[in-house]
Amino acid sequence: MSKRKNFSTKRMAILNTICSTDCHPSAKWVYNNLKEKYPDLSLGTVYRNISLFKEEGVVNAVANVNGEERIDGITEPHSHFICTKCGSIYDILNQELTALDSVLTDEGFHIESKSITYYGKCNKCS
Ligand SMILES: [Zn+2]
Ligand SMILES: [Zn+2]
Question: Are 111 and 101 in contact (CB under 8 A)?
């Protein structure tokens, strides 16, 4: 019983870590943040929990940056800017109707969600 409780504490800690940052962390980032508090936590456990969270729809995968999958705690559809130099991922929460949206709706398409990913250099790198 105590083992099970322990597991869910770690599970909550992993989820809280993802949701309390807007840096769109990788599994490794989450692991590095938690390993001091949970010395018996393994990177594999973090990966396993993240895939469960994705299945449950409580987190989203954003993109692969430098070979690492980056995770978002915000599940409402929104767009991202990914810096190709430093690997930072920025949220673009302003979802104003774009010209492309009107082209689609004019042609009778019904948009349910959209997420656009921009790539480039962020304002700290350019
Ligand atoms: Zn940058
Ligand atoms: Zn995001």
Answer: yes
Q: Return the DSSP state at 97.
A: P
Q: How far is the CA of 82 from the centre of ligand 1 (A)?
A: 8
Which residues crowd ion ligand 2, with CB under 5 Å?
Answer: 72, 74, 91
The tens digit of pLDDT for each residue in 31-71 reads 999 999 999 999 999 999 999 999 999 999 999 999 999 99
Residue 2 has pLDDT above 50, yes or no: no
Give the list of residues 6+ apart from residue 43 with CB closer than 8 angstroms, or none: 27, 28, 31
**Ligand 1 centroid from CA 11, angstroms:** 31
Show the CA angle centred on residue 22, arms to residues 20 and 126, nearest 5°. 155
Residue 39 in domain = yes
Q: Are residues 89 and 64 in the same domain?
A: no
Q: What was the pLDDT predicted at 99? A: 87
What is the residue range of 14's domain?
2-72
